[in-house]
Amino acid sequence: MSAIDMKTPILIVDDYKTMLRIIRNLLKQLGFDNVDEATDGSTALQKLREKAYGLVISDWNMEPMTGLELLKEVRADTQLKELPFIMITAESKSENVVAAKQAGVSNYIVKPFNADTLKTKLTAVVGDF
Amino acid sequence: MSARFDEKDIGKRVEAIAKRGDGVEPEQILEVVESVMASIDGDLSTVNLKFYAEIESLAKFIENLKLELAAVRPDEINDEHLPAAADELEAIVGATEQATNTIFEAVEAIEELTAKMNKKVAPKVSDAVTRVYEACGFQDITGQRITKVVTALKHIENKVEALLAAFGEEIRQLPGQERPDNPEPPDGSVMHGPQLERDANSQDDIDAILAGLD
């Protein structure tokens, strides 16, 4: 578990701008206001290699690079492999959850979700904040 | 074999059929079969006659099938109904996204104001704002579901297109069910519901129409 504080940069990744806005606002309510956004996996990977983030919260279904592919790239990168990674997705099938776990996901949130779930999962991944 | 059997003529017809690159017409098969049967009927056994009758029946079945398919108007399904349905669904996604953004802007403005509210009211307003944010997730979920439906419609469109390609242009020319220029909805009403933006009149357009009628 890697502790983060309210100033730690967080990258949120989703191809739906509405969802980015929801996550950003909920994070803001939890006290996190250093939040960057990306709308697909490849853009996110580029941002992760350019700036030191403390946490990634990513959707699964995106093009051209999915959230799962992004996760695998992150885990394969020596500089990023320890980065906490939460998947937020509508994919709730067991095989999806297993695939994400095998790829090294830190935690998994199913859409639709609420603020309490986000807070619980964040705490599980990065500790109390 | 009967002397009336014109092998050369039959050969030419079969060759012509074989040369067709866009499929074989049932009428052509029927014609050749009838021609062969007419020329050699004296030589046919009962088994052969049954066999040729089966082929004839098969040709008629294909012909009827084509007429039935034409009656369903697969060209119309692909050219009009499926694209229209996909457009309507995409319009739903666009409209809900727009509405959600408007809700966000309003709620974010309310959230800003919580700093100026008294300590008893502010947390309650903040909780309500959080619930609105959570509820706005519907747009993402419905968007994904509608995208799935659009994908399914495109799959159906491809299948119908393959059907049309298999039967060629002919099926478009067969007499299908006649379609009125302005079909009435089944319930007899004349309402068409919300129109797509590209087809709809804006309020300015409506005002101009009304002004033009004064």
How would you describe the overall organization of this protein?
Chain A is an alpha/beta fold and 129 residues long. Chain A is built from five helices and five strands, in the order E-H-E-H-E-H-E-H-E-H. Chain A has a single domain, classed as 3-Layer(aba) Sandwich (Rossmann fold). With 214 residues, chain B is mainly α. Chain B folds into two domains: 7-71, no CATH class; 73-169. Chain B contains eight helices and no strands. Chain B has helices at residues 7-19, 26-40, 46-72, 74-113, 122-135, 138-167, 170-173, 203-213.
Write the layout of secondary structure elements.
The complex is a heterodimer of chains A (129) and B (214).
Chain A: E1 10-13, H1 17-30, E2 35-38, H2 41-50, E3 55-58, H3 67-76, E4 85-89, H4 94-103, E5 107-110, H5 115-126
Parallel strand pairs in A: 1-2, 1-3, 3-4, 4-5
Chain B: H1 7-19, H2 26-40, H3 46-72, H4 74-113, H5 122-135, H6 138-167, H7 170-173, H8 203-213
